[in-house]
């Protein structure tokens, strides 16, 4: 028989960072019975594979799923391969373009590869909702529709808005929440997790389970994670905004993006993504705000924790060392462009090189900045960067890269043409 932490201890962990709980008393009852009977709760979260890559915004739910796992419960990572063909209308002012089955399946494969960077494989079941939605006959769908009223469906705010503004609302979009609700019936879920924008769909699952004589699932909704360019309460993390940190991105890229977030947003990321306890985060924040610890140190610690989660400790350590080298000015970032220039016999004048790299508009402008020490260089990846002398031509062997930094923002790996 499985053993579980005390119910109040479980609640303290599971309710951290949660926006909606429907209903807390029911969750307490389920956890109490689970501990008494030694039966793990079935915790469901669905993800439609509408894009190939997961980012930190998706992992807010995955992190909550992992908390359930660590408390001894079973999670179901549900891939909505069938519902993805319908298209989730949540928050949309127009019908979502449909994906092809081939696109959905390709994206689903990448989801399966990425989720175990966060979840425990031993306590994770991966299911596809095509297993039970695809076999439904038209008669089955009619009976299913008979368990929900039109008035219920039109309570959704985005549906009401589109109708009021006389914008199209397709019938298949109304069927989407019903399909998601049926997932909970098929899985006999005890708990369903979702973003706060999914509350209507999740509550419909409760209603449908109750209609069928089942104990309704408890709903926990999480906040929408802000993007790296935002402050708390700002716009969400999204690939379309370019303000995301991808789960499968290289560790160097993850560190650069995470170190670029604001100090205020750092605490939001700690709350929603860190494994530190609420008390540990509060103590760290008190040290930072009290001046005993620098915010940069706290941000580096957050980077190490998150990058380790996705790439392991060695990958995180190497990425952080590279970042520190970049900050000191003795390294180039991993995305440094590779450029080719023609170098005449005897070398190229530093000012001419700067102009050919596009870092300055004229040799005169470049020369002034070079005299101020703006151009630094080295050959290969080793050794220290040294300041260029405006009067000394730059020469390096064919087949060897010249690494250059020009001021704080411009850099390149230069090859001889």
Could you explain how this protein is built, in words?
The protein is of the alpha/beta class and 417 residues long. Helix content is 46%, strand content 13%. It has 17 helices and eleven strands. Strands 1-6-5-2-3-4 form a six-stranded mixed β-sheet, with helices on both faces. A hairpin with a 3-residue loop joins strand 10 and strand 11. It is elongated and about 85 Å long. The mean pLDDT is 89.
Secondary structure elements and their pairing?
Elements: H1 7-14, E1 20-22, H2 24-37, E2 42-47, H3 56-70, E3 74-79, H4 83-86, H5 101-114, E4 124-128, H6 130-133, H7 138-145, H8 150-153, H9 157-164, H10 171-187, E5 191-195, H11 199-211, E6 218-222, H12 251-259, H13 263-273, H14 278-289, H15 295-328, E7 338-341, H16 350-356, H17 363-371, E8 375-379, E9 386-387, E10 402-406, E11 410-416
Parallel strand pairs: 2-3, 2-5, 3-4, 5-6, 7-11
Antiparallel strand pairs: 1-6, 8-9, 8-10, 10-11
Helix pairs in contact: 1-2, 10-11, 12-15, 13-15, 16-17
């Amino acid at each position: 028989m499985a053993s579980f932490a005390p119910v109040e201890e479980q609640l303290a962990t599971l309710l951290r960072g949660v926006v909606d709980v429907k209903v807390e008393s029911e969750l307490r009852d389920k956890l109490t019975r689970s501990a008494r009977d030694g039966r793990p709760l079935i915790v469901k979260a669905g993800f439609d594979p509408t894009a190939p890559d997961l980012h930190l915004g998706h992992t807010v739910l995955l992190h909550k799923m992992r908390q359930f796992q660590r408390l001894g419960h079973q999670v179901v990572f549900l891939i909505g391969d069938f519902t993805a063909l319908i298209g989730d209308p949540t928050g949309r002012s127009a019908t979502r373009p449909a994906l092809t089955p081939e696109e959905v399946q390709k994206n689903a494969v990448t989801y399966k590869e990425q989720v175990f960077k966060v979840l425990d494989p031993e306590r994770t079941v991966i299911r596809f909702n095509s297993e039970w939605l695809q076999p439904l006959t038209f008669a089955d769908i009619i009976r299913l529709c008979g368990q929900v009223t039109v008035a219920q469906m039109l309570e959704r705010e985005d549906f009401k808005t589109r109708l009021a503004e006389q914008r199209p609302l397709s019938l298949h979009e109304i069927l989407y929440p019903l399909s998601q609700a049926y997932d909970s019936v098929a899985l006999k879920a005890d708990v369903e997790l979702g973003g706060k924008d999914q509350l209507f769909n999740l509550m419909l699952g409760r209603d449908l389970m109750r209609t069928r004589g089942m104990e309704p699932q408890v709903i926990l909704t999480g906040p929408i994670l802000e993007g790296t360019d935002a402050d708390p309460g700002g716009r969400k993390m999204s690939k379309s905004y370019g303000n995301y940190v991808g789960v499968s991105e290289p560790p160097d890229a993850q560190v650069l993006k995470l170190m670029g977030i604001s100090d205020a947003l750092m605490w939001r990321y700690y709350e929603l993504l860190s494994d530190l306890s609420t008390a540990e985060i509060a103590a760290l924040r008190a040290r930072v705000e009290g001046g005993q610890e620098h915010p940069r140190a706290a941000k580096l610690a957050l980077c190490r924790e998150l990058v380790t989660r996705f790439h392991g400790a060695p990958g995180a350590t190497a990425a952080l060392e590279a970042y520190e080298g970049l900050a000191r000015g003795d390294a180039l970032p991993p995305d440094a462009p590779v450029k080719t220039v023609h170098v005449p016999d005897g070398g190229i004048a530093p000012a001419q090189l700067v102009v050919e790299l596009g870092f300055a508009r004229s040799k005169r402008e470049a020369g002034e900045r070079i005299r101020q020490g703006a151009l630094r260089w080295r050959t290969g990846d080793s050794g220290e960067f040294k300041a260029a002398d405006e009067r000394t031509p730059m020469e390096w062997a064919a087949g060897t890269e010249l690494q250059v930094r020009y001021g704080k923002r411009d850099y390149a790996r230069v090859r001889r043409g």
